[in-house]
Amino acid sequence: MRTIETIKELQQWVDERRAAGESIGLVPTMGFLHEGHMKLVERAKEENDTVLMSIFVNPAQFGPNEDFERYPRDMERDKTMAEEAGTDLIFAPSVGEIYPRESSITISPGRMAEELCGKSRPGHFDGVLKVVTKLFHLSGADRAYFGQKDAQQLAIIESWVEDFNFPLKIRRVGTVREKDGLAKSSRNVYLSDQERVEAPHLKKALDIGQEMVADGIDPISAMTDYLIENCSGRIDYIQLLSYPDLTENVEGEAILALAVQFEKARLIDNLIFTIKGN
Amino acid sequence: MRTIETIKELQQWVDERRAAGESIGLVPTMGFLHEGHMKLVERAKEENDTVLMSIFVNPAQFGPNEDFERYPRDMERDKTMAEEAGTDLIFAPSVGEIYPRESSITISPGRMAEELCGKSRPGHFDGVLKVVTKLFHLSGADRAYFGQKDAQQLAIIESWVEDFNFPLKIRRVGTVREKDGLAKSSRNVYLSDQERVEAPHLKKALDIGQEMVADGIDPISAMTDYLIENCSGRIDYIQLLSYPDLTENVEGEAILALAVQFEKARLIDNLIFTIKGN
């Protein structure tokens, strides 16, 4: 496995793969890899001749008061894990390589960014679309892999790719969890010991909520009570929306999602399931 | 030469060209072709194995009070001209084929759309970026060809392609003019006989302005007087800006551009030249 840092080297690699008739699977990450990322690589490996992983903590998707500077980084550990999972190339560019100048042009996710995480993270999904657009173009990928844990990101990217005819497919990969149910996340390292004990209650609240939805009951107030009872963190949101279009017209595919702000970590989790019509 | 109307057929053609190792030159047009378009095809032909022309009057780039409905169309004549110039494939999709649903996501050109045509055509360049993004992705083009007459469009597209790493090159092709200097345009057919006699004064005003700029004199007021004297149309703007970044810091490459609204036709024209520093 090679690691490169420049667009020029990446272009050369992509040209070589293309010339050899190989398909490319892209796994975009911000590094500090965990088993969720490994599952993305495994899926990419199954469906493509070669797997490219990008590792780039994208400043454009962090707000001014967010954790860009202290976002966890460990390139050596990432390289070992990526290689073990079967990655062929890591692209780990500098910020200056990706953003050599400020562009006049912006991409706005619109309505889809007004729910869930978009509410408390203004501009976050603009930054996500900015970097994935560049990575999609640079990588020449046939398929790109994203985890369901970042479900709103996934829905917005799917819409972007479909509505603007990007020549690649987006693959949705299920959330990987700890044994106690906590969704794997690079930000879990920020949790205090006590918060780590509380954090599995996010998934439990979702399970409770899903059962209530199946019974035709609005789950938000019961889930709120449950989380207040069991978590010291502040609830940012609990929402039930259609998926992937993220409207309040929930019938068919739906997402039940929540975010809880602990002292140093803001955790998100969700379940996607089918609601049967009346 | 073939003409196709669906994305599916286009994708098949692109796959075949790619498999044969052929490079693709894209000439995006709104049809009602003239010699300016023919020059784009010729340039594309020189630099690529195969030439794809799109013909699509893009509703997204017309304002509610603009001329989308009455924009001139003549597909049979276009086919003959495109074939004579060496076009290999025409892609002429319906509006529903290009825009099957309203997207939540938009592309905003920002500061670069606040000058020149952007001022009197709000949303115009959003619509241009929307359609070229789709065409760039669908065509798999190595190079795309645009005329200098639409200089602001060209500058915005160049910036979009560079800042977001599209895997294609934009080629700028010089304006083609009538013998009397009038820039070729599909909209020239809207001119009355009297307006057609006046219209070459747009180019003359630009020539006068360029000489004044060379002499270090601000040309706007003299050009305004000249056009009021010689044209019945209403001046929309006359501006001198840096090019292609479109700022008021003019040294080096600059654009002197104007727009005049005649009764049924809004005509634009420009010169791009180098201003020597003091």
UniProtKB/TrEMBL annotation, chains A, B:
Keywords: ATP-binding, Cytoplasm, Ligase, Nucleotide-binding, Pantothenate biosynthesis
Active-site annotation: 37 (proton donor)
Entry-linked Pfam families: Pantoate_ligase
UniProt-annotated location(s): Cytoplasm
InterPro entries: Cyt_trans-like, Pantoate_ligase, Pantoate_ligase_C, Rossmann-like_a/b/a_fold
Chain residues that bind (R)-pantoate: 61, 153
Catalytic activity: (R)-pantoate + beta-alanine + ATP = (R)-pantothenate + AMP + diphosphate + H(+)
Domain of life: Bacteria
Primary enzyme class: ligase
EC number: 6.3.2.1
Binding site for ATP: 30-37, 147-150, 176, 184-187
Pathway entry: Cofactor biosynthesis; (R)-pantothenate biosynthesis; (R)-pantothenate from (R)-pantoate and beta-alanine: step 1/1
Listed GO MF terms: pantoate-beta-alanine ligase activity
Annotated positions binding beta-alanine: 61
Record family assignment: Belongs to the pantothenate synthetase family.
Subunit structure: Homodimer.
Function: Catalyzes the condensation of pantoate with beta-alanine in an ATP-dependent reaction via a pantoyl-adenylate intermediate.
Any further remark recorded for this protein: The reaction proceeds by a bi uni uni bi ping pong mechanism.
Protein name (database record): Pantothenate synthetase
Gene: panC
